[in-house]
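User: Fold this; tokens only.

Assistant: Input:
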Amino acid sequence: MEGSTVMEDSTQRANVIGARDVGCAVSVDKNINTIHQTNETFWSIKGNDVLGTTALPLYGAFVSEENCQLFGEMNGKKVLEIGCGTGHSLHYVGKRGASELWGGLDISKDQIDKTKAYLAKHDLVSNLICSPMEEACGIPTDYFDIVYSVYGIGWTTDLDCTFERVYSYLKQGGTFIFSWSHPIHKCVSFEDEGLHFKKNPTLMNHGIPYPLMEIHCHCLIGKCQPI
């Protein structure tokens, strides 16, 4: 089955690629090549316009590197980003002393080109690779001090394989840092300097509205090291 446009419908539950609160989505079958082609087209044509850009120092909604300090000292570190987007995160780590920047593992050549242009404007260079993150693509193994991904990991078609590859890229004692949108985001709004459940008639528990309450889950964020 080819990709097809699906209008937003709260009763529908399709296999959706690249969807959020955007009014429509693309439904595809589970053929890996079809998913890759759909994701590549989405990010090449309108991904940043629809979903925006989330990049370091932000990990996602209200969570930042300044708050979490996950990277630590970056001087002299070899760093790989998974899902480089427009290059803003690579710029962030490059300006903080990383000695070697690798980026890409981005499925969209358009995103790779944007990254290259953005880094060049700031006198930075990076080894950029256009490839699905779950596939072998010539990245050196046992090499990087830090591998990170900001809102990129969720686009993989094979999470186990992707994590295994990340493990292989890291040198002993290296660090993997990643973030992804917390599913609670679609149910909350920012009010009075805090996150609250939306006052929405669709947010019902067996016909009883959920209470308006403050929550403190901002985004899914992880840091791990090989053992």
